[in-house]
Amino acid sequence: IKIYTGTAHPELAHEICDYLKIPLSGADVFQFPNENIFVKLHQSVRGQDVFLIQPMTRPVNKNIMELLIMIDTLKRDSAGRITAVIPYFAYARSDKKDQPRVPITARLLADLIETAGADRYLTIDLHAGQIQGFFKIPGDELTAFHLQRDYLLRKGLDNMVVVAPDVGATKKARNLAEALNAPLAIVEKRRVGNDPTARALSLIGDVEGKNAIIFDDEIDTAGTMTNAIHFLKQAGAKEVYAVATHGILSPPALERLREAPLTELILTNTVPIPPEKRLPNMTILSVA
Ligand code: R5P
Q1: What does the alpha-carbon distance between residue 230 and residue 267 come to, in Å, rounded to a whole number?
Q2: Catalytic residues
Q3: What architecture does CATH give domain 2-142?
Q4: 3-class secondary-structure state, position 136
Q5: Sequence ranges of the domains in the chain
Q6: By CB distance 3.0 to 4.6 Å, which of 23, 105, 131, 269 could disulfide with 91?
Q7: Among the CATH numbers 2.30.110.10, 3.40.1280.10, 3.40.50.2000, 3.40.50.2020, which is that of 145-285?
Q8: How far is residue 135 from each of residues 37, 98, 115, 116, 158, measured CA to CA in Å?
Q9: Any atom of ligand 1 within 6 Å of the Cβ of 125
């Protein structure tokens, strides 16, 4: 097999190659001054089983275009099979027409990946599992669940409760609760009055005196997570741990997380987390 990387997350590609004990295949990938992207493979991939690693992380749209152009390059060089390895799939919230006159961008991306020439896709913890159905090519949605579960088990925390920070996260949180043999609690957001943005939180379950583990698929601006952290502390939680697969960390996530009464933030490296975004209480599990 051959492994290639775009410019989105070369560190992860190197880690995967180290794990597999094979070299990372080389390619020139850069932008011209006019922002057009150039790709040239250093060697032929004719007939090879090629994996291209490129999460849809910042700069998101450039990295998506780079992914497509690299797939096209591999296809035109007669690769035997091309697997697009997309550890983080962007636009996953755009998975349905939930209001008039809006696109379904996740579907558009699946179409583009296929049209570019990918034979398979591989991704991790999609925000919405139904995105699998947007692809006609086969693929695998992997999960960081086992890494997260094993890490938490190794910590040996007692008196745990797993918390879904919103109702949408309940199913995954319940799976983790079962794996840790812990109870489940759910933070529920309710609309207040006529203001469409005003929300009140209420808690289903008991966190008092317990080590609360909040479990979500991603932390973007950290609003969901830090609201839940403050709320659980007020409800009497002992220590609060936040666990998520994708550490997107868009502003003002770092400020919010720094100010939150959080014991540990446990993320993975599906997207790069540069040194300036690493908080002292952050642990990064490798999906490599
Ligand atoms: C929402 O449905 C997701 O599971 C996450 O809770 C959400 O993407 C987090 O966004 P933010 O960090 O901006 O609150």
Answers
A1: 19
A2: 189
A3: 3-Layer(aba) Sandwich (3.40)
A4: coil
A5: 2-142, 145-285
A6: 105
A7: 3.40.50.2020
A8: 25, 20, 11, 13, 42
A9: no
Calpha distance 248→239 (Å, rounded): 24
Which of 171, 188, 217, 265 to probe ligand 1 with, by most ligand atoms within 8 A of CB? 217
Please provide residue 112's backbone torsions phi and psi, each rounded to the nearest 5 degrees: -65, -40
Structure confidence by residue, pLDDT tens digits, 132-174: 999 999 999 999 999 999 999 999 999 999 999 999 999 999 9
d(CA 164, CA 245): 14
Structure tokens at 84: 């697009």
Query: Phi and psi at residue 199, in whole multiples of 5°?
Result: -135, 140
Which residues, at least 6 apart from 200, have a Cβ–Cβ distance to it below 8 Å? Answer: 189, 190, 192
Ligand 1 pocket, 248 CB below 6 A? no
Question: β-strands 282-285, 264-268: how paired?
Answer: parallel
**Token pair for residue 245?**
């697969």
What ipTM score was computed for the predicted complex, to two decimals? 0.96
CA proximity to 48, closest of 78, 24, 80, 20: 80
